[in-house]
Amino acid sequence: MTRLRALMAELLTLGEYQPERHTGPAIWMRCVVDGTLPLPSLLTPLPSDGRGEQKGTVPILYLPNVSRQLLRSPEECPDELKPLVELQYRGAIWTQLNGKDWTVEAFLVSESGGLGLDVARDHATRNALLGALDMLATTPISTLRDHKLEAEDFDKLMVGDTVRDLLAWINDPKVRDGWDAAHWKAFGSRCMDEFGFDPVSDGDLVAAERLGLRKDAWAEVWRRFTESPMLYPGIPAALRRARPGDLFVQRDSWPDENEKDEKTLRSALMALPEFTPEQGRKAILEYEQQHGERRGWVWARMGFSPLAAALEHLRTLAEHTALPLVGESPDAIASGYVKSGYRADDAVLRALACVKTAEDVAAVGAAIRTMYFGWLDDTARNFQTAARKWPLPGRSDLNERLVVAEPGECLLFVDGLRFDVAQRLLAKAHERQLLVSGGYRWSALPSVTPTAKPAVTPAALAVMGEQAGADFCPVVAEGKRLVTAQRLRDAITATGHQVLHGLETGLPAGEDARAWTEHGEFDALGHKLQARLAGQIEEQLEHVLERIIHLLEAGWRTVRVVTDHGWLLAPGGLPSLPLKKYLVQCRWSRCAVIKDGAQADVPTAGWFWDSRQAVAYAPGAYCFSSGMEYTHGGLSPQECVIPDLTFRSATEGKAIAVTIESVKWLGLRCRVSIQPAAAGLFADLRSKPNDPRTSITQTKPFDKEGKAGLLVEDENLAGTATSVVVFDATGRVLSKQPTMVGGDQ
Fold this sequence. Notes:
By secondary structure, this protein is of the alpha+beta class. The strands form seven sheets. The protein has a six-stranded mixed β-sheet, with helices on both faces. β15 and β16 (610-617) form a beta hairpin. α14 (255-270) packs across α19 (358-389), α15 (277-291) crosses α17 (306-320) and α18 (330-353) packs antiparallel against α19. The longest helix is centred in the middle third of the chain and has 32 residues, at 358-389. It starts with a helix and ends in a 5-residue tail after the last strand. 37% of the residues are buried.
């Protein structure tokens, strides 16, 4: 933690109140996070993003001895920790892919999200590991691979490491102040012997120069630096000062070479609006050839190459916008969009997320506008032409398209989950070992929340259209009152669905249990942040995925994610096509209601809730108002093709629920009891519960009373940690429980 605090001022630790060490109780942490208790070293604003706003650092909370499961159960959470419960849904929790809390040992050995190292599991190794943790944290991973790590390996880390000390000294020569005279003398001697370098007479700049030149033994020093560059934030500045005048140097060693290339690329991107879209795409592919390799340089890992990082996504944008999407019908165009067209929209968001400074945002925005808008506009116009021939579904089609939860299913509404963003959610779910199925459906028209949200609820049949009015809001059929959030919830409840608020999980075990809940802020953030929404996508996806997992863990068999509409996003703003106020009854950025008798040369389509009422739409990707970088309500694949996804646990439907009732040791004999007793179940003792190769005994079947006996034959394993594992005939682990060979005694 001492090393981390030196690198991350935003790191807060749960503990006794010591604000100077960024440590304190839960209520203090919550106050710091919410800004009601300023902590200057944490909340010092970052440079302006160029749009008049300051961005602060994101706090990281370390909660020693607090399990994730404890925070997931507010009713069981101690009062002193309750201020932190809500934060888990505003942030991302670093856990194992299976949702379990990390331990040091688990992180070292795990091949899913950890380091995948081969570590002995005996008591001596565990003690040595924890004793060497401070040094282990900065040890190159490559030196730990390809052999089994035992106590001796970790003990050796406590002995001097010349390369580590040398990098620390180049990074900050003042590190010498923390060394005693013997350490400094030994360091100088080792430098002379191993690197032909005298720290006293040569100094840190000569060391930095030799580091950059990477000759002879210094190549290993450079390799060590590139393995963990963030541990040495002062080295780039040292290399800038020490750079030799020789032009024939390895360019990737010197940060100023990377900075020069970034400047060149920035100027090239800013000039793209002078090109035609086709010329712009060709230029981007050429720039990728020139600059793509820099993403492999160490400076990219340190965040010094944002434009080179964005270029990867601009290349994808160039490849997917050469031709607009076409088709005779909306379904034909949607087919092309969900197959590959959405990748253009995704590339825009990813490219924008790579850049932070105003000048970099402007450069990437210039490239996007050059290649993207023409494709977006042509695709939207083709879609509008197809929709005029083949109208999208309306209220009369609800019986075939009604969204109703299956028994054991929870419906999760996510406002503004665009199709391309949903594909990222799918990828994250697969990483967390969830099963996902689904496709797309059509948004209700116009694609604004008041119209489109009721259409994807179980209460849709209880809603009807009166007057579209100024808000495109339908009414509840009974009583003819405008649909509000509360009335919609009441109507959903009337369909037999539990309506869950906030973090509630409801009663999934009830007979014919069904539920509705809401989560996510994509649309709200889009209207607030406009194009800067791109930088919030990943965080919002983590929130949604955590909510899905939370519901599945609570017992819901499936979670079906639905949304109301997509959106258009273009940095710098979409072009406007003003619609005179005297022509319209109401006007939104992408849709309007034309007054009776008035004429306007724009596309029209029937209102979803009453097709007799025509709604006017901005042509192509234009808007009826100016300055809109983020908007929706129009007719385009991005706004109207919406995801419909169902998530389930990978083990759902394949395993029975088994509880380990007791684990009793008599010497090296272990007796295990389970409930319920079932045929075809087996017991084992494993170092890694899901890896049968780590078994330390012979597996035994459970008898008809749910009991099994296991024997550990190796006496040297006494006192080591292991896990009792219950599995079925297919090898699927049904239950596990940590234990100590021989018992706690």
